[in-house]
Write a structure and sequence with these properties.
Elements: E1 2-5, E2 8-11, E3 15-22, E4 27-33, E5 36-41, E6 49-54, E7 59-63, H1 66-88, H2 92-98, H3 103-126
Length: about 130
């Protein structure tokens, strides 16, 4: 689910952590994400494919003032918590409607989420 706030647009489904790194005046607001899955051919021309995770680069924004950094950090944490609460209650569709997301985008996000769950399940079995 792509959500924009304060000039930053993020996929909330892939968001793993929100951090702040302070310096002597302000600091960075940093967003970390879960890995993305890509189909990769096991060996060239084998026509055998597997899902491989690829690390997503963090997104960061610098704030000249620590107070601004703290305000944006708290706003993003609050929005992320609100989104997660909707997901936990199984009300993603209600949140989507309230925030005006179109149906096709929603279907793409849900399909991507299913692929990730499938990959995580295959990782659990490979460790046995």
């Amino acid at each position: 689910m792509i959500f924009e706030h304060g000039g930053i647009a993020l996929n909330l489904f892939k968001l793993k952590a929100i951090k702040k790194e302070k310096d002597n005046r302000g600091g960075y607001l940093i967003f970390e994400f879960y890995d993305t899955l890509h189909d990769v051919e096991k060996t060239p021309n084998s026509d055998q494919w597997e899902d491989k995770p690829f690390a997503e680069s963090p997104v960061s924004q610098y704030f000249d003032d620590f107070t601004d950094l703290q305000i944006h950090y708290e706003e993003w944490i609050g929005m992320w918590k609100q989104w997660k609460d909707y997901v936990i209650r199984g009300e993603e569709e209600e949140w989507r409607k309230k925030n005006g997301f179109d149906v096709e985008m929603w279907k793409m996000v849900k399909d991507e989420e299913k692929e990730w769950e499938k990959f995580e399940g295959s990782q659990d079995h490979s460790e046995e």
